[in-house]
Amino acid sequence: MRISVEVNGERHEGDAEPRTSLSDFIRHELGLTGTKVGCEHGVCGACTVQLDGEPVRSCLMLAVQADGCSLRTIEALGAEGEHPLQRAFHERHALQCGFCTAGFLMSLEPFLHEHPDPGEEQIREALAGNLCRCTGYAGIVEAVEQAAREMGADRR
C-alpha cells in the first residue's frame, strides 16, 4: 500500500505491506534508526515515537495506520540544538547503554509540555511505560526534574 506521512516536518511517501509495523517502516524504509525495537510487544517503550503529538508504541502500530499523520522521531528532538531533556539525561547520568533512551525522551517531552512542574510521583507514573535494564530510575527522575526546571525557565 502506498502511504504518505509527515516525518520530522518532511513529507514522505512509501510503499508498506499491510502487515509492516510502523517501527519497521521508520527504520527500514525511512532509514531513521534512532527508533529502537525492543520487545515488539509494546511493553518496553523503546520504540516510542510521537504520532500527531502523542507518544505511541511504533511496534504496535501498522505503518498504514499512520497514513496522513504527522510523526516525530528522536532524530527531531534537539535538531535545532540540544533539548533540555537530552542535556539533563547526560548530566544526571540517566542512561547507560542508551538503547531505551530515545523511547524515554519521546514519551517525556510531551509529558513535560502538559505537566510543566511535575512532582516525583507524576514523573514516576509517566516513566511507567518505559523500561530500562541498565540504570536505576533515580537518575532518570532527577533528569526529568532538571529538564522541567530548565524548560520552565525558558517559558518565562
CATH-assigned homologous superfamily of the largest domain? Beta-grasp domain
Question: Mean pLDDT, as a whole number?
Answer: 95
Distinct helical segment count: 5
Q: Return the CATH class of the largest domain.
A: Alpha Beta
DSSP summary, beta strand count: 5
Q: Provide the low-confidence segments as ranges.
A: none
What class do helices, strands and sheet pairing give? alpha+beta
Reported for the largest beta sheet, the result is: 5 strands, mixed
Descriptive terms for the model:
alpha+beta; 156 residues; 15% strand; five-stranded mixed beta sheet; 2 domains; DNA polymerase, domain 1; Ubiquitin-like (UB roll); globular
Task: Draw up the topology in text.
Blueprint: E1 2-7, E2 10-15, H1 22-29, E3 48-51, E4 54-57, E5 70-72, H2 84-91, H3 101-114, H4 120-127, H5 138-155
Parallel strand pairs: 1-5
Antiparallel strand pairs: 1-2, 3-4, 3-5
Structure description:
With 156 residues, the protein is an alpha+beta fold. It folds into two domains: 2-76, Beta-grasp domain (Ubiquitin-like (UB roll)), CATH 3.10.20.30; 84-155, [2Fe-2S]-binding domain (DNA polymerase, domain 1), CATH 1.10.150. Helices cover 36% and strands 15% of the residues. It contains five helices and five strands; from the N terminus they run E-E-H-E-E-E-H-H-H-H. Strand 1 (2-7) and strand 2 form a beta hairpin. Helix 2 (84-91) runs antiparallel to helix 5. It is globular. It starts with a strand and ends with a helix. The relative contact order is 0.16.
